[in-house]
Write a structure and sequence with these properties.
The chain is of the alpha+beta class. The chain folds into 3 domains: about 90 residues, Nucleic acid-binding proteins (OB fold (Dihydrolipoamide Acetyltransferase, E2P)), CATH 2.40.50; about 260 residues, Bira Bifunctional Protein, Domain 2 (BirA Bifunctional Protein, domain 2), CATH 3.30.930; about 130 residues, Gyrase A, domain 2 (2-Layer Sandwich). Helices cover about 30% and strands about 25% of the residues. It is built from 16 helices and 22 strands. Strands 6-9-10-22-21-20-17-11 form an 8-stranded mixed β-sheet, with helices on both faces. It is globular, with a radius of gyration of 30 Å. The chain starts with 17 loop residues before the first strand and ends in a 6-residue tail after the last helix. The structure holds aspartic acid (ASP). The site of aspartic acid has 9 residues, from strand 21 and strand 22.
């Protein structure tokens, strides 16, 4: 037997028991006649002790062990004189009688401790060693618990877990597909699913009215900091539901998860904010509601008053930062640099200080007297001591910039408390989104999303006016997931494809299977997918999903541990009848 116990379970009640432990040498210390060795496994650390006087041979053997050697020790659990209250095994140690080296180890490229000395790149290259460290271990355990709880909740609600294939045909979720050449069907390719979207809809047609899957999705996108080319979704679909049924069910899931994983009882119903309102008030469809600081528009008050920048602007608006009128010139200059950086793209920043003494000072004093500025004050409901920050320009770009400025100010004011969780639903998304580059409409969510029946009358005359039964779940400014009620009617689906610029032939070759299925009794249905990695990161208190994935890829989509992607042999290429162009 390699072990009778793990390295995390022995305590004062086990004193005098003879035990066998196996694990990794975390570190060793020689103190005069004694050698102490920390033995580590997944469950914890147990101290082994060797005595030079009573067993010099064994003690010398212990002293030769290097970090990360895999060893087995047999000995007696003994009460420690020097107790360590910080670990569960800290009251005992094992007085070792027998020590076996199961496998020696080379010196690892970085120390396997909570705070390691290894740089990012190095730790990715040796991910299997990094995974031995506590922080990552904690994350993977949390991920495991999350999966268990998701399944437990959904199972209790009559959902059944069904796997869908990975080798499929393109599903347009807005990203590029990863493709896989087929050997048996030369010249043809599978696509890896961007999500199981069409399959889960087909399952509804098959009558499996509540489906879920912890599904891997693959999207060949340029990777921003917190994206992975393959990621996991809690993918769900339900039949005979309207939007509220889906929202209520998954609000229930999210509340259940907060309770189980964070011990937090989120009692209140999540606010449901229409998309247009979210954009108007927060400049974004994923607002952080841990704080108020709503965006206010002052276009009608501030335009055509002789200030050229405002006069040329389509939109003038800003935010009110409470008690920030004491911001210094330097702080304001920094904010100006912040909003004018290329990623944010504002042309400049106008400020108004409503000083504690009642005076008003602004960067546009030349054009606006205090009477005019006090009118702005009313719009913002600003108080003495508050600071207005105003941007102007094209509507969309300015609102987007204001969204960033709002977050930046909240950061500076300490309003983004990471102990606080404020979920909300953003609802009534636009059905379509104009794309300048392609000169046509794209689906805002995906082509299977149902338009709101009351907006159908605009579908031909002004498609941009049509809203959809589509919704996103947002927590603390992060999009956690989204879904929609689906089209379940062949004609409607066909019409939608036409609006998205598909010819009938193309729609038929790509999605004929779905539209055909609609002919055989498709129930009304809808669903949602929540980002599983992102939820894990949220519960783990981290910004980065990478820390919650055992073997993630880097920002260039590479796994630098296994060195993938890589070239394949000519044999493999020949079998696929493929040739790589130089
Ligand atoms: N398939 C969608 C997505 O991945 C989610 C859904 O509509 O259920 O975003």
């Amino acid at each position: 037997m390699y072990r009778t116990h793990t390295c995390g379970e022995l305590n004062i009640h086990d004193v005098n028991t003879i035990v066998t432990l196996s694990g990794w040498v975390q570190r060793s210390r020689d103190l005069g006649g004694m050698t102490f060795l920390d033995l580590r496994d997944r469950y914890g650390i147990t101290q082994l002790v060797f005595n030079m006087e009573t067993d010099p041979e064994l003690c010398k053997k212990a002293r030769k062990l290097g970090r990360e050697y895999v060893v087995q020790a047999i000995g007696t659990v003994t009460e420690r004189s020097n107790k360590n209250k910080n670990i569960p095994t800290g009251e005992i140690e094992i007085v070792v009688d027998n020590l076996t080296v199961l496998n020696p180890a080379e010196v690892p490229p970085f120390t396997i401790e909570t705070n390691t000395d290894g740089g990012d790149e190095l730790r990715m290259k040796f991910r299997y060693l990094d995974l031995r460290r506590d922080p990552l271990k904690k994350n993977l355990l949390l991920r495991h618990k999350l999966a268990q709880e998701v399944r437990s909740y959904l199972n209790s609600m009559n959902f059944i877990e069904i796997e869908t294939p990975y080798l499929i045909k393109s599903t347009p979720e807005g990203a590029r597909d990863f493709v896989v050449p087929s050997r048996m069907n030369q010249g043809q390719f599978y696509a890896l699913p961007q999500s199981p979207q069409t399959f889960k809809q087909l399952l509804m047609i098959s009558g499996y009215d509540r489906y879920y899957q912890l599904a891997r999705c693959f999207r060949d996108e340029d990777l921003r900091a917190d994206r992975q080319p393959e990621f996991t979704q809690i993918d769900c679909e339900m039949s005979f539901v309207v939007q509220d049924d889906v929202l209520n069910t998954f609000e229930g899931l999210v509340k259940y998860l907060f309770l189980k994983l964070k011990g937090l009882d989120l009692r209140d119903t999540f606010p449901r904010i229409p998309y247009d309102e979210a954009i108007r008030d927060y400049g974004t469809d994923k607002p952080d509601l841990r704080f108020e600081m709503k965006i206010k528009e002052i276009t009608s008050l501030a335009k055509n008053q002789g200030f050229r920048i405002f006069d040329q602007a389509e939109y003038i608006g800003g935010i009110c930062a409470s008690s920030c009128a004491d911001y210094s010139r330097k702080q304001l200059d920094k904010l100006t640099s912040f909003v004018t950086q290329p990623q944010i793209g504002a042309k400049g920043l106008v400020f108004v200080k409503f000083n504690e003494d009642g005076s008003v000072k602004s960067s546009v004093d030349k054009f606006f007297d205090s009477e005019a500025l006090n009118k702005w004050k009313e719009v913002f409901q600003a108080k003495a001591g508050d600071l207005l920050l105003i941007l102007a320009g094209d509507s969309t770009a300015t609102l987007t910039a204001l969204a960033e400025l709002r977050l930046e100010m909240a950061n500076q004011m300490g309003l983004r408390d990471n102990k606080l969780f404020v979920p909300l639903w953003v609802v009534d998304f636009p059905l379509l989104e104009w794309n300048d580059e392609s000169g046509r409409y794209h689906a805002k969510h995906h082509p299977f999303t149902s338009p709101k029946s009351e907006d159908l009358r605009f579908l031909e005359s002004d498609p941009s006016k049509v809203h959809a039964d589509a919704y996103d779940l947002v927590i603390n400014g992060v999009e956690i997931g989204g879904g929609s009620i689906r089209i379940h009617d062949k004609q409607m689906q066909q019409k939608m494809f036409r609006h998205l610029g598909f010819t009938d032939e193309l729609a038929e070759t790509q999605f004929g299977f779905l539209m055909n299925a609609f002919k055989y009794g498709a129930p009304p249905h809808g669903g949602i997918a929540l980002g599983f990695d992102r939820l894990a990161a949220l519960f783990g208190g981290s910004e980065s999903i990478r820390d919650f994935i055992a073997f993630p890829k880097n920002n260039s989509g590479r796994d630098i541990m296994i060195e993938s992607p890589s070239i394949i042999s000519n044999n493999q290429l020949n079998e696929l009848n493929l040739k790589v162009r130089q």
